[in-house]
Input
Amino acid sequence: MDVPAWVWLVTVGALGVLFALDLVIVDRKPHEVGMGEAARWVVFYLACAAAFGLGLWLFAGSTFAVEYFAGYLTEYSLSVDNLFIFVIIMSAFRVPAIQQHRVLLIGIVLALAMRGLFIAAGAAAISHFSWVFYLFAALLIYLGWHQIRHRKQEAEFGENIVLRALRKRIPVTDEYDGSRLTVKRDGKRWFTPMIVVMIAIGSVDLVFALDSIPAIFGLTQEAFLVFTANAFALMGLRQLYFLLGGLLTRLVYLPIGLGVILGFIGVKLVLDALHENSLPFVNDGQPLDSVPTAGIGLSLAVIVGVLLATTVASVYKTRGHRRGAQLACSEALKPQ
Output
């Protein structure tokens, strides 16, 4: 897929306009984002992502469009899992409800910029070193196993090295001052906790890229598709935060589903790498044409099927628990 420079510029510019539109409309007057408003924005960003995919189908062909949709669904589902940590960060830093949208917006813009560097580095490595596929595959299989094995552990947040270094080098106030990043006190410039939270969101999301970037490279090696799928997934992430809220705890089987998806993509990477092998110590450097591969159509079907199955199973499981709790509460309230 030969993407001209002007297409990159137009795409990045359009994404920038969407971010600016969100910033102007939602953050013009800071407020607590309600369910209805969040739902409308989620639908809007889903429509934008779908429209972009349809545009790819028309102008680049069905193969690239399916690769984009598979990558987008994978990134979006992994982002939902990341929302657990975002909820913990907001709680840990006691971010006022009316400021949470801006924190997420700026933090995710930072994350997207850093992910862009990761994507460029990953694309360059893949084009020059075939063994990178095996490295990505091993990482994805391990992370998938880790997701499933530790699915019942409570998510925790601890300040990483970036935040600890930041606190040591700059003065940070103890309280917020609206949405301001800095304040001046006694002739000295201080930073507010707002900037610390934004950097926390951005840096934590960068850590999450350790599974999402290799995962999408397992579905497509086109840097343009990898970047746009990540961008649209991240743009819709803020609205999901407000829409799902406490409902996140009901997705009890989501870690299992994500683990299966990561493991599947890892195996797919191994098969693809063997099918196009160039390593001298594997089959004397010759491709293994007899090795089966998983096409992008099958990959998309597996991703959609696993997400649907885990979501339905989660809703059924938690609904049963809620009914049991309601019955127990009713029995306890009955007069003896």
Observations:
- The chain is about 75% helix and 0% strand.
- The beta strands are 182-185, 188-191.
- The two ends are 74 Å apart (CA to CA).
- Confidence is low (pLDDT under 50) at residues 324-333.
